[in-house]
Amino acid sequence: MNEGIVVTDIDKSFNDKLVLESINLTAKHHQILGLLGPSGSGKTTLVKMIMGMTNPDNGTITVLGNQMPNRKVLQSIGFMAQEDALYDSLSARENLRFFAELFQINSQKVENRINYVASIVNLVPDLNKLVSNFSGGMKRRLSLAISLIADPEILILDEPTVGIDPELRQQIWKELHKYRDEGKAIVITTHVMEDAAQCDQLVMIRDGRIISSGTPIEMERTYHVNNLEEVFLAAGRNNSNENSINH
Ligand SMILES: Nc1ncnc2c1ncn2[C@@H]1O[C@H](COP(=O)(O)OP(=O)(O)OP(=O)(O)O)[C@@H](O)[C@H]1O
């Protein structure tokens, strides 16, 4: 089987400001990869490059063995962007139907599939409401449901748990672990340590550079600390020291 996502030697600048530097990572099937970093560290830019929405200055990205951008591969990716891309004047059900058609889901299976993905995010009672009446959290949940509608082989979720209450967050993680066990490759971005702890592999990003990577437990052992927040701080300190030695 092809590797899910392979990012090789990526650099990216905006207006001469380097926002990602020498990024290498692999997101494998049967694995949840967490991109953990503070606001502005470059996570969304990286995710957009994986989707082929932004071009890197250097380096390559392949998804399922195909170099991105590649329109055909998009059919195999469920993507949840940081900004909800929803039709406000349609109901949640109509939004889901629209995306089901885009992904060419068998019309006999569409309604079942809509009910299934809506149940994952507790939106079944709200399916016929207009999205313009939804709260921010409900919109996030609908965006997550849309990313799951086609049962994609790859899931890329940019801050999927923002605005979602703890109980539902747990339910969503249970579902993501199930998809992982079924063999999907899943990438999520987050700045929340509780979410990071649920991932199989973590890549910590600060100021556009990878400061550490590994499983959550490996990372805690490496830095002799008891939680990921301390790993992040320790890795950041090490990185700053290396930079000051190297430059
Ligand atoms: N289109 C753009 N033009 C210019 N600068 C940009 C553009 N997109 C992102 N940036 C800059 O790149 C840097 C990384 O932004 P990015 O959105 O990738 O970070 P992030 O880690 O996803 O942050 P957040 O968690 O707040 O979304 C920031 O300094 C941002 O201002």
From TrEMBL:
<feature type="domain" description="ABC transporter">
    <location>
        <begin position="5"/>
        <end position="232"/>
    </location>
</feature>
<dbReference type="GO" id="GO:0016887">
    <property type="term" value="F:ATP hydrolysis activity"/>
</dbReference>
<dbReference type="InterPro" id="IPR027417">
    <property type="entry name" value="P-loop_NTPase"/>
</dbReference>
<keyword id="KW-0547">Nucleotide-binding</keyword>
<dbReference type="GO" id="GO:0005524">
    <property type="term" value="F:ATP binding"/>
</dbReference>
<dbReference type="InterPro" id="IPR003593">
    <property type="entry name" value="AAA+_ATPase"/>
</dbReference>
<dbReference type="InterPro" id="IPR017871">
    <property type="entry name" value="ABC_transporter-like_CS"/>
</dbReference>
<protein>
    <submittedName>
        <fullName>ABC transporter, ATP-binding protein</fullName>
    </submittedName>
</protein>
<dbReference type="Pfam" id="PF00005">
    <property type="entry name" value="ABC_tran"/>
</dbReference>
<dbReference type="InterPro" id="IPR003439">
    <property type="entry name" value="ABC_transporter-like_ATP-bd"/>
</dbReference>
<keyword id="KW-0067">ATP-binding</keyword>
